[in-house]
Amino acid sequence: MNFKVFDSYEEVSAYSAELLAKVISEKEDAVLGLATGSSPVGMYKELIKLYEEGSLDFSKTKSINLDEYVGLDGNHDQSYRYFMDTNLFDHVNMDKKNTYVPDGTAEDLTEGAKKYDELIESMGGIDVQVLGIGPNGHIGFNEPADELKLNTHVAELTEETIKANARFFASEKDVPTRAVTMGVGPILKAKKIILIASGENKAWAVKSLVDDVITTKIPATLLKLHPDVTVVLDKEAASML
Ligand code: F6R
């Protein structure tokens, strides 16, 4: 694992965007594995800037997102489809037909999850996967547990994650309790991984990335098995390293 520590979130975002831009420049039809949440917002802003300056072309780029809340359709302003449209896709020349987010409203969620894995395979896998990290060490919605699921599946959100995400909803009871998420399989199969973390509340989870332990109780520790992970941190997130 390669750790990069910066003084500010702005620098974290600019550096992460640089890493992603390099992949897009080297492979015009690159498959980007994307995340939502606060961590990558600044990076998406930087990517939009690079596009507006004419130094980045997304016309052939494809994307596949990590997760989506069960029960929220793409028009819901807290759905992850809506997040991706408003934070990135609507502002660059990406063909929306090449952007995929799990369907949280599918009648048969299990079948939908299976199809999502087949889709990832049919795209030739993920060239670069962007990740945030939960304060409890979750990646995607793979929450701490005795065992983790390999493939895309429906996950129950933990109390802690519901609380952490309540800030985006009118109240805690409006936060969906389930999500469709990629399992650790497609994440670890990505050719390259960029994990972004900022803020002191991530320091404990970030520390687990350097300890000599791999445990399903802290799902992000499985990333130690991957040969090409860059962890991009601000100094608060790095404060326990
Ligand atoms: C988002 C996702 C989550 C977040 C994590 C951190 O698609 O899969 O694992 O990356 O919860 O969220 P933020 O960045 O909001 O702190």
Automatic annotation (TrEMBL):
It catalyses: alpha-D-glucosamine 6-phosphate + H2O = beta-D-fructose 6-phosphate + NH4(+). GO terms for biological process: carbohydrate metabolic process; glucosamine catabolic process; N-acetylglucosamine catabolic process; N-acetylneuraminate catabolic process. InterPro entries: Glc/Gal-6P_isomerase (IPR006148), Glucosamine6P_isomerase (IPR004547), Glucosamine6P_isomerase_CS (IPR018321), NagB/RpiA_transferase-like (IPR037171). One of its GO terms (molecular function) is identical protein binding. Keywords: Carbohydrate metabolism, Hydrolase. Catalyzes the reversible isomerization-deamination of glucosamine 6-phosphate (GlcN6P) to form fructose 6-phosphate (Fru6P) and ammonium ion. This is Glucosamine-6-phosphate deaminase. The gene is nagB.
